[in-house]
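Re-running the complex after MR caught last week's input typo. The corrected sequence lines follow. Everything else is unchanged.
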Amino acid sequence: MDNEHNNLTMEDLGYGEFFEAGRQHCGFGGFAVARVIAEYKELYRVKNLKGEYSAKITGKQMFHAASRQDYPATGDWVAITELNDEQAVIEGILPRKTMIKRKASGKNEVQIIATNIDVAFAVQAVDADYSLNRFERYFAIANDGGVLPAIILNKTDLISKEELDSKIIQIKDRFGDIDVIAASTINDAGMDALKKYIASPPAGRASPSGGGKTYCFLGSSGVGKSSLINKLIGKEAIKTNDISARTDRGKHTTTGREMYFLQNGSIVIDNPGMREVGMADAGAGIDDIFGQITGLAKGCKYGDCTHTQEPGCRVLAAVESGELDGEKYRNYLGLKKEAEFYAMNDVQKRKKDRQFGKFIKRTKEQLKKSDRQSH
Ligand SMILES: Nc1nc2c(ncn2[C@@H]2O[C@H](COP(=O)(O)OP(=O)(O)O)[C@@H](O)[C@H]2O)c(=O)[nH]1
Ligand SMILES: [Mg+2]
Ligand SMILES: [Zn+2]
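Corrected-run output:
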C-alpha cells in the first residue's frame, strides 16, 4: 500500500483539526500520533506516515482505565512513543469524534466496536432473518455515537426484482431519509453505487480536512460484510464465512475489527458481527438453527465435537447430504464464534493484563537502558 501511496498524508488516514486540537489539549504535543488500524488480543496495530507498529498501552494507562472505553479501539488516534521500526507504546488516546459502541451481554460494560467513524452501514441480507426492526437498533447504535447511518441490503440476487422493490418501499416508508444501497456480491448489483457513495459521502459528513472518511459495517454474521469489503478493496483481503473456513479454524487472531484503506482514499472497517443485535431479534430463526444442530449433534462420534472438522461428525454429514441447509450451518458457525469471543473476554482480559504488565516492565527497562546509553 505504501508504494501505491507515496504521498500519503495524515488526512488520508483520517486525521484533521479535531484530533490535532485534542492532541494539544491533552498535552500530547510532544508525541507522534498514529491511528489504530487493528485490535488483536494482546496488542494493537497502529499506523502513521512513518509506517506501521505493533503497540501496547502503558501500565499507567492500564492502572487508570476504569472501563473498556479507556482502552484503545480500532479507529482511535493515539499518541505513541516509538521503540523501534516495528514497536511502539501507546501513551494515550486522543479525544474521539464519534464512537460505535454497545452494551456487552448481561453486563454493564460497554464495548467499543470502532471509533472516529463517519458513516455506519447497517447491513442485512434480504433472505433469512430480515427485519426492519433490526435496522432501528443499528440506527440507535449509530445515532448514539454521533455516526450517520446508511443501509445496505445485501444478497439481492436471492430475491426477485418485485420483492426487492417492495422491501425498498417499506424502508422508505419507515426510514424515509436514510440512504439505501441494494447490493449483491454475487452479481455485483449496487457495487458501483456503493463505491460512489463511499467516494463521496453525504453532505455534512466530509471531514474538515476533506481527507479520508471512515466507514464501518454493522450486521449479523453471515450477511456479507466481509464479502462487500473485499469487493471494495478489489481482492480477497478478508476471509469470509465460507463453508471451507472450517478447515482452518483457529487461525483467526484478530477481533476482526480491522481497517482497510481503499484506492479512492476512503477507509473501511470490518466488524465480526453484532451478536447481541443479531441474536436478540432473530428469535425463533436462530433458536431453530441451534435446536436442529443440537439434535443432530447427539449423533456425533465425539461428545465435545465442534462440528467443524471432526471425523464422524453428524452435523457435517448433514450439511454434505443437504439435510442441513449450508446457509443455516454458516450462520450457526458465525454466531457460535461470536458467542465464544465474548464469553472469553473476562478470563482473557485478566491474562492479557498480566502479559501487558510484563511487557511494560520490559519496555521501561529497555527505555532506561537506551537512555543511559545516550548519555
Ligand atoms: N447469495 C449471496 N451470498 C452472499 C452475498 N454476499 C456474501 N454472500 C455469502 O454469505 C456468506 C457470508 O459472507 P461474509 O462476507 O463472510 O459475511 P459476514 O459474516 O457478514 O462478514 C458467504 O458464504 C458469502 O459467500 C451475496 O450478495 N449473495
Ligand atoms: Mg466477516
Ligand atoms: Zn459434530
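None of the earlier attempt is carried over here. The chain has a mean pLDDT of 79. The pocket of guanosine-5'-diphosphate (ligand 1) is lined by residues 154-155, 157-158, 184-186, 219, 221-227, 240-242, 273, 330, 334 (CB under 6 Å).
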